[in-house]
Amino acid sequence: MFKTLAGVLQHIGHQVVDGVLRLGYATRFFLYALKMSGESFRRFPLVIREIYFTGVLSLIIILVSALFVGMVLGLQGYNTLQRYGSSEAVGVLVALALVRELGPVVTALLFAGRAGTAITAEIGLMKATEQLSAMEMMAVNPISRVVAPRFWAGVISMPFLAALFSMMGVFGGYLVAVQLIGVDNGAFWSQMQSSVDWSDDIMNGVIKSCVFGVACTIIALFEGYDAPPTAEGVSRATTRTVVISSLAVLGLDFVLTAFMLH
Amino acid sequence: MERAKLDLWVGVFVALGFAALLGLAMKVGNLSASNIGDTYTVSAYFDNVGSLKPRAPVKSAGVVVGRVESIGFDDEKKEAIVTLHLDMRYHFDTETNASILTSGLLGEQYVGLEAGGEEKMLKNGDKIKLTQGAVVLEKLISQFLYSKASDGADNKQDKKADKE
What's the burial of B1, exposed, middle or buried (CB within 10 Å: 0-12/13-18/19+)? Predict the structure, then answer.
């Protein structure tokens, strides 16, 4: 009895200590990547190549999801608002929901699934096939050559992807509410414009997406760099990237929103 | 992939991203409307501002002519002081009446301006003298109940007087 209790406690303790160690390791990795990012700005084509892989290739999934999210918001919003006789406010609902929350958050979740996993698998495989060690042998720092450009590419891509998501979502809401259901076009846009604020809503959304960009990319990079150099290790690291990124995005979203609405 | 094609796609991506931000600002947000050009500042004392907020619209005849800049409390007069930014294009005379109104039954509160008949126009830094504060629902209800109650009392007394 006492032994099993001690065993359980020991297990919990081990998990906690392990988690804190990994967090510290990831933070040092993040700071080191920042310190080593000088080269990725001197050789900017490296970053451009990665923006192509993380940003441009994510466009399709981002835009299509945004269209459907916007359309669903339009339908659901209209369905509830028309009960109170204010169906024109559907534009406000769609725009505020997208610009403040759904734009940055859903973009970050999709980004973690689409680009984050690719980064983790690529770096994990580079490590497993000892490409990173080979670079070190040639006196090339893998952090500044491999990690930093991917980091900056993710950070740069995310706000643009989130802005495109919000814009596309508003367009989807417009399609459903105005074109399909027949809400008044002028009221839809004018009510939206009078209640969406440039700095309070749109810029806060951009700030959120920048923070999510940093979090998602550094988690993907760290998991890849830290993965055990086996097939199983890489697959586990990829799974962990999605899980941890999603949780981090949702948790950070709450904290950021709490600060922004104070 | 060759360099030029890569640059092109990334260029398209970034341009699209900026266009979306600009579209959000102009089409979805109120960046185009909030810059109402040059403004002049006037202030007004109110006995009660209700739930008026900074950046609330200032309307005259239903048209937005400015924004509420700040709301403060004057310790000497024990009244709220509201600073308004009015659009340079519109001029109001010194007898203008400012009142705090509500749009719709449950809508947001705004400052309504009604022009008076004076020749002199308000200048930057002037004060609006004629003001009317927000209506407090509780006070209204209690007034109504009070008047009802006193009516009832009067009626009873009248009836008593009739009997006698």
Answer: exposed
ipTM computed for the complex: 0.81
* Pairing of β B127-128 and β B39-46: parallel
Tokens of A122: 């690529």
The string of pLDDT tens digits covering residues A67-121 is 999 999 999 999 998 888 788 889 899 999 999 999 999 999 999 999 999 999 9
Mutation pick from B8, B13, B108 vs chain A, by most beta carbons of A within 10 Å, is B13
Identify residue A190 by its one-letter amino acid code: S
Residues of A in contact with B29 (CB under 8 A): 99, 193, 196-198, 201-202
- B-contacting residues of A 129-158, CB under 8 Å? 157
Q: Which fold has domain B38-133?
A: Elongation Factor Tu (Ef-tu); domain 3 (2.40.30)
The angle subtended at Cα B161 by Cα B157 and Cα B164, nearest 5°, is 140
Residue A51 to residue A148: CA distance in whole angstroms: 12
Tell if the CB–CB gap between B33 and A193 is shorter than 8 Å: yes
pLDDT in tens, B109-136: 888 998 888 888 888 888 888 888 888 7
Cα separation values, A13 from A17, A19, A21, Å = 6, 10, 12
Kindly list the residues from chain B whose CB atom is less than 8 angstroms away from the CB atom of residue A198: 25, 29-31, 34
pTM for the model stands at 0.76
Q: Give A199-241 as a DSSP string.
A: IIIIIHHHHHHHHHHHHHHHHHHHHHHHS-SSHHHHHHHHHHH
